[in-house]
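Re: Re: token formats

Sure, here are both.
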Amino acid sequence: MIDRKTKLRWRRNVRRGRRQVEDLGSQAEENLERHFFRRFGKLLDVRRFVIGWMLLVVLLLAGVSLQTRSLGGYYKTMRPVKGGTYSEGILGSFTNASPLYAAGAVNTSVSKLLFASLFKIDQNGALVSDLAVKYVADANGVKYTVTLRDKLTWHDGIPLTADDVVFTYRTIQNADAKSPLFSSWQGIKVEATNIYTVVFTLPNSLSAFPYSMTNGIVPKHILENVPVTQLRSVPFNTNQPVGSGPFMWNRVEVTGKTPETREEKVGLIPFDGYHEGKPNIDNFVVRSFRNIQNMEESFYSGALDAMVGLDAAPKKLKDNKNIVEYSVPLEGLVSVFLKTTSDIFVDVKVRQAVVQSIDQASLLNGLGFPAVLANSPILRSQTGYDKTIVQLAYDKAVANALLDSAGWTKGANGMRFKDKKPLTFTLVSQNTEGYSLVTKDLQKQWKSVGIDVVVQLQPGDDFQGSVSRHDYDALLYGIAIGPDPDVFAYWHSTQANLSSATRLNLSEYKSAVADKSLEAGRTRTDPSVRTVKYRPFLEAWRSDAPAIVLYQPRFYYLARSKVFSFNPRLFNEPSDRFSNVSQWMIRQQKIVN
């Protein structure tokens, strides 16, 4: 029980608390009245001052924000970054990705992206390592020992070893495989001494041999059980290829209901285990086109990032400053090959006159693009080139005199005749814008000395047929020479015979002096000795005039925007553009410096 005294004490405490609360409330009201309500009127009197300060603060904040953004240009720059899809359009068709058989612009491009090789040609035209780290030649230049990189793998994860290299080259050497590379590898012994070492033993010294080791290597574990006679037609070539290159196979799509509209779209994805590092581009698409118009339309619509196969930018893009044009000299020659067995060119005087009636400088001015002038069957940059032994110089008076002495006289119309037969021949070339311009100029210049030339511009497949059959009197054509000056395949008499595997002696030129010189030049490794050995060939070639060399061809590449890390200076062939494709980048992003 609580006594009465305690209750009274509690009541006194409660009353005291209430009085304190009332006192505090009264003080609060008095303070609000004194410090806020009475001064609020004064605040209205200085409202302009307050508003001014508020606006100043807002302006300062806005200024700082704008300055931060503007300064971004100093501490942030646009830089290439990884990612994106790159689509390249190429004239031609896709039929075979295997490096054992790939031919044509589309096939070789796909093959180069999928399959790595022992060595490759870089953007400067130099031979550099790929699957192999080095080669060592013996003192006689007959035995080449090649060492592979460590821990190489195929796209399916299986290790790549020297056995795969041996399998590749022995398959090429098998006549039943019917590889286009067959003739280049005959008589060469290939063996593996361990999983990282391959030894090539040549029947004779060949200075250009290292450049032969640039074809793709194929997997033994996938193809070894395929009958050799069936290798050309297995699914591996078209929809199940497994390589060791920067990109792996994804899929192929075929569209178009007619031959003219048919297209193949080959989709590739990066290979994580690529020995030079995973490619920066997420997807690489190669699209084939049968005609230029369809390819250009796809480029205009934004479906393509680049085009291959044009001679120059389409008129519609001439003034487009966003596109990027790459013009890269190739290690080759565009020449007019005069078939020395043709009735009109059996006479060396006629050949000499045909050569000396052409003004190269005038012809190159009409090309529409800068070209590297050529005047010898060996390139200016190569061992063996001699500036004192070049083709017969332009001299119209000498050309006319040669034709006169050969019995070809001018008629009333200015054209030449002999025994009532006109001096005429057929010039065959491919139907491209560049070759069309060149043939017109050639035709005009030859007409000025009384020669009537019939020009035949043929579509790609027909033209290649004419080349392989030597179905022409004269042929305007570009040949690949490569980094080494060995031009045996184009000028040695054995390469003109019907029994020759390639028959690349397009002039059907035969000279005992030239043959001996070519044989000696290709078996020497000392540059100074090679130069001496090639001199008789150059002298015979100039005197016999089997061709007119005009200029080095170029690889023209048109891109929608800059391709970062793609800075080519010289190629052996167009597919060499992919030598560093794993480093390409196509996207940009602002990044802090």
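Second one below.
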Amino acid sequence: MAAKVLADGGLKVAVLEAGGPLNPAKDYYEHAWPYQFEHRGLRLPQGRAGFAAPNLFTEIDGEPYTVAEGEEFYWFRSRIVGGRTNHWGRISLRYAPYYFKPYSTDGYGFDWPITYEDVAPYYDKTEAFIGVFGTKEGIPTAPDGIFLPPPKPRCVEVLIQRACDKLRIPCIPARMAIITRPLNGRAACHYCGQCGRGCVTASNFSSSQVLIFPALKSGRLTLLTNAMAREVVTNGEGKVTAVSYVDTNTRAERQVRCRAVVLAASACESARLLLNSKSSRFPNGLANGSGTVGRYLTDTVGAEVGGVLPQLSGLPPHNHDGIGGMHLYTPWWLYEKDRKPDFPRGYHIEFGGGPGMPRAGMFRGAAARHEGYGAQLKQALRADYGIGVGFAGRGEMIPNEKCYCEIDPNVVDRFGIPVLRFHWQWGEPELKMARHMRQTFEEIITAMGGKPLPRPYKGRAGRRGEGHEFSLGSEINPGGSIIHEIGCTRMGDDPKTSVLNKYCQAHEVKNLFVADGGPFVGNPDKNPTLTILALSWRTSDYILDQAKKGNL
């Protein structure tokens, strides 16, 4: 977003991408069939998982990270133009007004130096530009936005909605960055349901197709791929003058000289770059006079429960088309005083079921429930296929001092760059929330006439080699596994306790900005990408204004 806004605003921009270029026509497997791939797609080249878009959630050869002994954290990265937006879930939810002043509301966490009213105009701009479907519901915890028409609910989603109605749980159209009408030259979604594989028509949002590629047409954007940023270089006055990077093909070190730098490498990667940018003026890392770079790392609280709906067994095949994700969702609803649970803040519910829905387990889920061979097995699978349903909670984490990343003093990557070491501990509020999630999901499945599946069951983190298994549903998902890591360069009014000001500008280095999830002060239950885009646009407008005034 920063590259697009700054280039459109008249500045010359260079983007350093640690990974390779992206060609959607060749790199996306949107409409491919399993028989077109070796081993039916079990293993694919270029770090792909299944038939997903390139570089999805895999350990990167020669680029390790470490985790403190006895703790658990999973860091999913992507090395390609557009990064994780090539395959994210595209759930696009605004933060509510109280999310920006949480400490003033209930005494937990920290207040942001900005308000909802500061961000709302940029939510409007972002939604109108990238395209988000949804409906206006007037729910306090889920602010309305600029929406395209949503798709109609699928069969299983209708059943979920009916069960939620019985339990006084709201169930409304989802809000997703997938266009249901043509927008800015992009075709409307054709409902192939394969969003996770990438979208050749750019009907779903990715920063590669919707931001970077159009910005290149301005002639003011230079895209440098296979360029691993190593250090942000400053002069004697403490201003940024260049970025030093490694050409990952030749391992030669190069520099890009600049008037200002915007870090948008993802929260942890940007923190790593700052911590590795040491000098006599910044002995603890660039812009780290507060000592808070890498601190207050958070991820979304997650828990899942699956189930089966016996009444759908043997259901005749029917049109189950739609987007690659949910058509409905449940916003946080237990915020009234008479219904308040025993933990602060809240969560929303994501779900799916029936044929073709990932949370339902699809064919693999049916196959896992049966043994045998030949016609008998096929008949059992046909009867069982499409009866699955899955629920996932996504909840707010309260920042704590025990969750952070730092430079590992003993480990470097293949380019000689020191790597991150993670520390992670969930707090009691998160554990209580996860427990409440699972109980709620079991109640919904039961109200549907279904049967919850026993816990725990396994998920795959894709961390080492072909993947690392961790338990889902037993207590709470491991840190990092929801892939919503934010914090590490938080904004604030006080330079002693924060890295950035309210415009995401470093307190100590006025031509240094951060435009990813790093500036976030808290991690509400809402998926962070929409807010990252909105804040990045706001920061970029500020940079343009300051550049015109000669202040950078």
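The chain has one domain: 2-548. The chain has a mean pLDDT of 91.
- S.
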